[in-house]
Amino acid sequence: MDATRQPDLTRQRILEAGFAEIHRHGFQAASVANILADTGLTKGALYHHFPSKKDLGLAVVDEMVGVALVERYVRPLRDAAHPAQALIELIGMKQGISEEFIRLGCPLNNLMQEMSPVDEAFRDRLNRILIQWQEAFEEALRRAQMAGEIRGEVNCHAAALFIVSAWEGCTGVAKNMQSVEAFRACMSQLQGYVASLLKTS
Amino acid sequence: MDATRQPDLTRQRILEAGFAEIHRHGFQAASVANILADTGLTKGALYHHFPSKKDLGLAVVDEMVGVALVERYVRPLRDAAHPAQALIELIGMKQGISEEFIRLGCPLNNLMQEMSPVDEAFRDRLNRILIQWQEAFEEALRRAQMAGEIRGEVNCHAAALFIVSAWEGCTGVAKNMQSVEAFRACMSQLQGYVASLLKTS
DNA sequence: CGAATTACATACCGACCGGTATGCACGCGT
DNA sequence: ACGCGTGCATACCGGTCGGTATGTAATTCG
Q1: Taking Cα atoms as reference points, which of A196, A147, A141 lies closest to residue A164?
Q2: Does residue B195 belong to the interface with chain A, where contact is any CB pair within 8 Å?
Q3: Angle formed at CA A98 by CA A187 and CA A129, multiple of 5 degrees
Q4: Residue A89 has pLDDT above 90, yes or no
């Protein structure tokens, strides 16, 4: 019952504490000592499961950030019967935009801004996640276009890229302003953009 | 002629080298030693002109980032005879988007994402610059609205906030993708958004 | 049941980091 | 011309960083 020796659970705890620390301070400023303090573990444990701080960071990107994005955005859109409506609702969703999340910003965006010019491995992994996100939007737009809901001349690829960019921009600006209200106003404008792609029936 | 003892020029050199170092590595990862190596100066010089690394960073924000933004965006829009057209042209400008700038990203955006949750003084200064930028857009939109070029029901404040956000989002995503082409495509979509605010005469 | 491997804990290391105390030469005011 | 403050250079400090070498239980496997 005392649950001694559960290596994969230990690894998961390190990943979660690592994600929180990186979310708070960024990767470079993230302290291995803080992560260990949060988990109650020691360096031996961490460097047994991960060869280096960088490898831990990359694992956090793949197994925490990437997985969360797929669950929250990619899958719901893929399973949506009415993709255009689902996309607009997703942009306007009010769940999961706590003050804390506004303060700390989008983990994906934070890491992209910090690590892209600094480390190619990070850039590559983050870019894969970003493209996954963009493709989820693009697919939704294309399906809506097929269904005749979106105007035929709309460039779904470019529009999806813009939605992702504007989304990250909104979270970034809201983070600086520390204002959930600004975030809502900004995302509302993004909703308007998507609506402008629809056919004016 | 050897120009010994020019304190304000020395200060300016420190500011410029500090800006470059911060632009490359972010503020927290910026190394004072690197700045000194770039300028050929020593710690005595830097800490004579600036009480701390943080004060240097804040000075860089105010005197480099802030000033550049006013010169490039605020002033041109204020002096424009046709603000709506000027805004659209500004978004589509092709000057000053070198590969290097795409790789390193927008200095304002970089610092906002990194420092906003970490340091209130940084957040405050950066926010002032951001609001200055937003207000320049808002003023241009409002003038265009007065002139009858933009539809009356457009919320110029929210639209300006969105343009700033989307702009930063585009630079951020382009930075991660390391693609000037993606940046152009993204900004082109932003142009489309602004155009959608115009009256369809 | 013994041996080998896994899963950690402990102690320690060199490399930077920002910051400071001190020294000194130039230039300006009087 | 002389003194004093400004404008730097040099040397040094404590602290934190990521990383490693070693030790030692617990688990697994033959």
Answers
A1: A141
A2: no
A3: 65
A4: yes
Number of H helices, E strands in chain B: 12, 0
DSSP letter at A116 equals T
Tens-digit pLDDT profile for residues B100-134: 999 999 999 999 999 999 999 999 999 999 999 99
Q: How many angstroms separate the CA atoms of B170 and A185, rounded?
A: 18
Is residue A160 within 8 A of residue A83, CB to CB? The reply is no
Round the CA-based radius of gyration of chain A to a whole number and report it.
Answer: 19
Nearest 5°: CA angle at B168, between B19 and A105? 95
Q: Answer yes or no: do A178 and B109 touch at CB < 8 A.
A: no
Q: How confident is the model at residue A200 (pLDDT cuts 50, 70, 90)?
A: confident
- Indicate the average pLDDT of chain A: 96
CA atoms lying within 13 Å on the CB side of residue B201: 6
Closest CA relative to residue B66, chosen from B107, B18, B121: B107
User: pLDDT value at position B4?
Assistant: 72
The average pLDDT across A5-20 equals 96
Structural domains of chain B in order of their starting residue, each with its CATH number: 57-195 (1.10.357.10)
Q: A158 and B189: CB-CB below 8 Å?
A: yes
Per this entry, what is the length of chain B? 201
Coil, helix or strand at residue A198? strand
Q: How far is the CA of B174 from the C1' of C11 (A)?
A: 46
Whole-number Å distance, CA A30 to C1' C14? Answer: 21
Torsion of CA B124, A119, B96, B119, to 10 degrees: 10
